[in-house]
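Request: Have a read of the protein record below and say how the chain folds.
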Amino acid sequence: MGTKVLTMLAPLWQGLPAVDPLAVSGSASCALPPRYESVGGARKFTRETLHGWELDELFDGVALVVSELVTNALRHAVLDAPALGADGLPARLHLMRWSSRLVCAVRDPSDASPVAGEADSAAESGRGLYLVDSFSDSWGWHPLSGTAHGKIVWALFRLP
């Protein structure tokens, strides 16, 4: 994993049990083009990555969380107000694996904080972060540091 990605994701380690960020046993990332079809591409990327890490049994929950995080990034940060991140891409999905945990992180160019909506079963939208909270062990977000605009929204899963 590149030093730039480790620096950008450094706040993920805050508030978690001690983890050496250099001890990542696997990492993968993919660009998220500014169109809703990217959600399906992110799920496919997640399936292939988890399969390569022999974590197929986690796919359903992780894919649901990835879908919600990617949808939110596209809906609220990319398609409504197109902007590019520091690498010239609108958004990016990162998957990182340690021996005991998996982190899914979505970077987008918006400085706005994510807002969890009410979990209204009749509504067609607004439940995304509620689902992320329900299916992951923890989640959070942080603004990008330095001159880069945007944020990282992440979800952590403990591995069996």
The mean pLDDT is 79.
